[in-house]
Amino acid sequence: MAKLGIVKVRLDREVNGYVLACASTKEAVVIDPGLPPEKIAEQLNGLSVKYVVATHGHPGHVAGKDDLKEMTGGQTAIHTADAKQFLRSADRYLLDGDELEFGEFKLSVLHTPDTHPAASAWWSPTMRSWETPSWPAASVSRRLRQTCAGR
Questions:
Q1: How far does the chain reach from its first CA to its final CA, in angstroms?
Q2: CATH code, domain carrying 109
Q3: Does the residue 92 lie in any domain?
Q4: What is the pTM of this model?
């Protein structure tokens, strides 16, 4: 069975970024690439970043995406609704049900507009629970639902 590594990175604006990595292939996904991107990059030793994705388009969750893309070569991805609302560019625009494969795993996009019109969550193998996004100004947080999605 494939092993998935998950590293939580505390960023500016009280945002948590995440690095998900397939242990066998060393392919990784970065979720919520806030600032400073160097703090995320420090967690990528020996990993090849395939995707840099955001749960939504607020600045704290995407401010480091372009720098991180330049540092790692990973493709950027964001939900289509956020791209339109916040005029965000990306290599890939996502919809509910889309999948992003990395290593022996895949992330399935779960559109969760309950907290934000274009908010997205990610279903992924072996993750139990993690809280994102966390918006102190709005006192909003939500739990992501997880399911096994290994290939």
A1: 10
A2: 3.60.15.10
A3: yes
A4: 0.79
